[in-house]
Specification:
This protein is 72% helix and 0% strand. It is mostly helical and 69 residues long. It is globular, with a radius of gyration of 15 Å. The two termini are 28 Å apart.
Length: 69
Amino acid sequence: MKKLVLVGLLMMAGFPAVVRADEGPGCATTLADCYRAAARIDSFWYRWAAGIDCELDFIECSRRKIMGR
């Protein structure tokens, strides 16, 4: 597991993301806002699904920042 984390960190260091200031908040800020919105949902299963959706959006956002697409 430690090797996987190390490889991930090395890959991120090798592919720096170019982020323009006018692109809005970062991926972590967007994730936190999404989690806040998901936490307000009353149904356990809908709240859980919204949380999973937040994580998938975070992964996509991170991929776009790293890969530049």
